From TrEMBL:
Protein name in UniProt: MFS transporter
Organism per entry: Brachybacterium endophyticum
Record keywords, A-Z: Cell membrane, Membrane, Transmembrane, Transmembrane helix
InterPro entries, per the entry: MFS (IPR011701), MFS_dom (IPR020846), MFS_Efflux_Transporters (IPR050189), MFS_trans_sf (IPR036259)
Keyword Membrane: yes
Bias (Low complexity) ranges: 391-408
Length: 408
């Protein structure tokens, strides 16, 4: 694989760290600002909503900019946001810092995923995308636990200063290793790419992403409270448990990309089905520490295994605007984050206990699976109709059950 992919992963590592490290620090942040667990959780959902806005807005504005320059510009925004978080003296300023840092997130991964896919042969696109997103998983395996340790030892602000430094290093890595990749020439206006949203398959892809990923993330948002309040682990054990979750993310991401290259439809169907079951079983067995450890790994693995396939699906169905579609799907991931965190927070506020976000996540994922199966059935009908229209002219290489070829 090209070295540029690993440079993109480095940028993803920094961005992934600022997104996820707040999980382990949430109790400390809540205590410092004197807010409830639910209000502290809004720092997560606020970040996610900002990603959703930035993923579409900034990807569109940077559509005609050299992609390398676009990625570097986005990292500048990321660095500024994390500096503000580290300096924040109030909850409101902390939220503002999270929002500023999050604006770059969707556009970085959206543009970066297109760059990654273009660096390799078509049959390896899923693997290339998974390598870029490996930065997110490595952030969870190593960065989040270390960031949590640092925050507990030297105060949570020290973690955000460390993230700021990582952002600078990531900037240098992108500048040195990623080749210049100019955006494609477009004859129309900047807004011309928005025609991709005429496709119902693009909208169904976005909905599946919101639900399929949101279910897992909603459960994960309040996982520190589940681990300490139900499973009986100490606060000091949480970082080590997050390592196990991160191991699952890393393995699931790589395997998900590899299998998505082979058969996208079947891969996502199986992953979403198993994830639904894992979340439900986790809720039932959370009082057992052994079962909790196993469930954490599986939740991370199957939760993040969806990412390369979901990203491929929307790009396959939006060949006229892959960067915008990719950015929109990154926004969808984070809308799912916000939606899942919101539902989990409602369950907690209703007094349903610290396993209620797991139950809510299982239901959300099940709905996502149902939407995906409907989308696949509609796609099959579209292909069958196209074959009838082109009978005698040529054959259609894409099967009804497979979405591994580019949609036309």
């Amino acid at each position: 694989m090209p070295a540029a992919l690993f440079a993109l992963a480095l940028g993803g590592f920094g961005i992934g760290l600022t997104e996820f490290v707040i999980m382990g620090l949430l109790p400390d942040v809540a205590a410092d600002f004197g807010v409830s667990e639910t209000v502290a959780g809004y720092l997560i959902s606020g970040y996610a909503l900002s990603v959703a806005i930035g993923g579409i807005l900034l990807t569109t504005l940077l559509g005609k900019v050299d992609r390398k320059k676009a990625l570097l510009s986005l990292l500048v925004l990321f660095i500024a946001g994390n500096m503000l978080s580290a300096l924040a003296g109030t909850y409101s300023l902390m939220m503002l810092g999270r929002i500023v840092a999050a604006l770059c997130h969707g556009a970085f991964f959206g543009i970066g995923a297109v760059v990654a896919a273009d660096l390799v042969d078509p049959g390896r696109r899923g693997q290339a995308i998974s390598i870029m997103f490996a930065g997110l998983t490595i952030a969870n395996v190593a960065g989040v636990p270390l960031g949590t340790f640092l925050g507990q030892a030297a105060g949570w602000r020290s973690t955000f200063w460390a993230i700021t430094v990582i952002g600078v290093i990531a900037f240098a890595g992108i500048a040195a290793l990623v080749p210049s990749t100019p955006a494609p020439e477009r004859s129309g206006s900047v807004l011309a790419e928005f025609r991709i949203f005429r496709s119902k398959q693009v909208w169904l892809s976005i909905l599946v992403t919101i639900l399929g990923y949101g279910g897992m993330f909603g459960a994960f948002t309040y996982i520190a409270f589940t681990l300490t309040g139900v499973s009986g682990f100490s606060a000091g054990a949480v970082p080590w448990l997050l390592v196990l979750f991160g191991v699952g993310l890393f393995g699931g991401n790589l395997l998900g990309g590899r299998f998505a290259d082979r058969h996208l439809f079947a891969t996502l169907t199986v992953i979403l089905s198993v994830l639904t079951v894992v979340l439900a079983v986790f809720a039932l067995t959370a009082a057992s520490q052994i079962a909790t450890v196993i469930a954490l790994v599986l939740m991370g693995g199957f939760g993040f295994a969806t990412v390369p396939g979901l990203q491929m699906r929307i790009m396959n169905h939006a060949t006229d605007g892959p960067s915008l579609a990719s950015g929109a799907n990154i926004a969808a991931f984070n809308l799912g984050n916000a939606f899942g965190a919101w539902i989990g927070g409602l369950a907690l506020a209703a007094g349903l206990g610290f396993t209620s976000p797991l139950w809510a996540g299982s239901v959300i994922t099940l709905v996502g699976l149902a939407v995906y199966l409907v989308a696949g059935r509609l796609r099959g009908g579209e292909i069958a109709a196209r074959r009838e229209e082109t009978a005698g002219v040529g054959s259609e290489p894409e099967s009804a059950g497979s979405e591994s070829a580019l949609a036309r």
